[in-house]
Amino acid sequence: MHNSVHHMDKNVRKKCLIPGYRSMDDSVSSTEEILPPTIQKLMKGYNKYLRPLFGNGPVTVGMSLDIASIDTISEINMDYTATIFLRQRWTDERLCFDGNKSLSLDGRLAELLWVPDTFIVDSKKSFLHDITVENRLIRIFPNGTVLYALRITTTVACSMDLTKYPMDRQTCTLQLESWGYNVKDVVFYWTRGNQSVSGLDHLQLAQYTLEDHYTSESEAVYETGNYPKLIFHFKLKRSILYFILETYVPSSALVVLSWVSFWISQSSVPARICIGVTTVLTMTTLMMGARTSLPNANCFIKAIDVYLGICFSFIFGALIEYAVAHFCTLHQPNAANAYMYGQEMQEREDEMNGIVTSIGSHTLRVRKREEMLSRMGSASNPTPSESKEEINSSQPQTRCTKCMSTARQIVRCLNCCKVKNPHYIDNYSRLTFPLSFIMINLLYWTYYLYF
């Protein structure tokens, strides 16, 4: 009889603690049994399925963040992974009690209370730490304020503009929204403005330095209504020292190495070809290695691609320079035939001059004859057909003269462009290649660092 009464009394206590209770597992029942008297009094008549101030306006939820670490920032996946402490505060008048001290409860008791349905908007994958127990904290203050803290590791999408990579700056965000409650039910706010996010001063990142961070409040507009949103912005600047040592210095050294061929004799064909081909292949390998850490589907050209393309052009240009110089050496007339070559060119020029002179004298005679005929027009009037024939015969000669003059000018231009001594090509390259490379470097670094 005594056992049955005790059993009935236990069931009555369950129903008093949680109204509307129908069926719960043994673990929850045992948890309720060991609640202290103060909590049992608070939970009496409490319904966790109804938010605070239900039907009397929205409940305000204040939030703050503590960034424990930012582990990975991936350009390939366009995301970052961070471990954060999310703290939420709200006031629930149903949990008011007498006293001047707060009550710290086990995190597992969160299942008995109403908590905001906050989620991370751009999260790809998140999890709540549960070693050794779920990392949750609940603290209730006498005025009914509830502090609810979580430790979460999340991978969040971050849209990146890699046009100036690796001299780029990225702005990533962490957005918090309410899943089911709109702005008429729940209002989010940062508890201390920009100071609501802490832990960034001691944060160490692998390739980035944190430039600035700030918070903002907004509303998310969906088809189902407007929902409260809190946004944490942080700006990152990439450290370029690693890329200077890894990419920029080796590529510049390869360009300088390709200039060594300018000081090697043109007769040393294997040596110059070996330097040119080796530097081209090494530069190609360096370009392929620089793109392994970047997304393959990007359609924009990055700053590092531009610099590697410039270096490859100079290396390839040095190889083409030797091909041109060697070609001119093979087709240059030797010393024995230089005199005959000059005589032949002189004879051709004299012949051309004679042709032009004879054509010019013939044209002069035709003009004099036309003048005489015009003067004697009163005495003997030539028929129109005869004068027309003379004019037509003079026109082809005038056109021929113009064509010969044009051909002569073209020959002179070709003679001016002809390289008299192919060894001068190397001498010019020793000066033009380094100066051009220095000028392009100045323009490149000025544009990407200051614009």
Automatic annotation (TrEMBL):
Transmembrane segment boundaries: 240-264, 270-294, 306-325, 431-450
Catalytic activity: chloride(in) = chloride(out)
Membrane topology: Multi-pass membrane protein
Residue span(s) of domain Neurotransmitter-gated ion-channel transmembrane: 247-445
Region (Disordered): 374-393
Function: Pi subunit of the heteropentameric ligand-gated chloride channel gated by gamma-aminobutyric acid (GABA). GABA-gated chloride channels, also named GABA(A) receptors (GABAAR), consist of five subunits arranged around a central pore and contain GABA active binding site(s) located at the alpha and beta subunit interfaces. When activated by GABA, GABAARs selectively allow the flow of chloride anions across the cell membrane down their electrochemical gradient. Pi-containing GABAARs are mostly located in peripheral tissues.
Protein name per Swiss-Prot or TrEMBL: Gamma-aminobutyric acid receptor subunit pi
Organism for this UniProt entry: Sinocyclocheilus grahami
Gene that encodes the chain: gabrz
